[in-house]
Design goal:
Length: about 180
């Protein structure tokens, strides 16, 4: 018998002063049985950071041909493909061919090793950017995870904070590879 996803609900008050984007997000997050709280919370944070019309969680770990998060325009074209974790080179090349912009957000302590191995092979992918959530921050995000969450996300001058009634987590994303201008 296959294991089913655990459903988490999150109400996120977003104030992204860098993009001048303010929203109240009501999110339903299906957490795959193999997904950790850390990965799920990084996924939630990234969703908030890229929130815009057309953004959606996908089937992610349930469907290998989809990213964790994507943005589609009104024609159905993928304008933004976001993977969380450490995808392989083949997946990233395919994603760069399918989407206008591809973002990878890695977060595990092994991310640095993964990046050193894959970086030279990704240099020519102009529409790819790679970001890293420091290990301490991603572990602190995991501590915020609950089945029902009320969170506030503030982005100002590239400083990110995600808070609940219980705790405040500050995240400083590191850019490992910016997309070409």
């Amino acid at each position: 018998m296959a294991l089913k996803a655990t459903i988490h609900k999150a109400e996120v008050q977003l104030a992204d002063m860098d993009r001048n984007h303010y929203a109240d997000l009501a999110l339903t997050i299906a957490r795959h049985p193999s997904e950790t709280d850390e990965r799920m919370m990084v996924r939630l944070l990234v969703y908030a950071l890229y929130a815009q019309d057309g953004i959606a969680f996908t089937r992610g770990l349930f469907e290998v041909d989809e990213p964790d998060i994507w943005v589609k325009d009104l024609t159905g074209a993928i304008t933004l493909w976001i993977d969380i974790g450490q995808p392989d080179e083949t997946r990233l090349r395919k994603a760069c061919g399918r989407a206008a912009q591809v973002v990878v957000v890695c977060h595990a302590s092994s991310a640095e090793t993964w990046w050193k191995q894959i970086e030279p092979r990704l240099a020519r992918l102009r529409n790819l950017s790679v970001l890293r959530v420091p290990a301490g921050a991603s572990q602190a995000l995991a501590a915020l995870a609950e089945r029902s969450m009320r969170l506030q996300c503030l982005v100002q001058d590239a400083a990110i904070s995600l808070s609940s009634d219980a705790a405040l987590v500050e995240v400083a994303l590191q850019t490992l590879k910016p997309a070409a201008a």
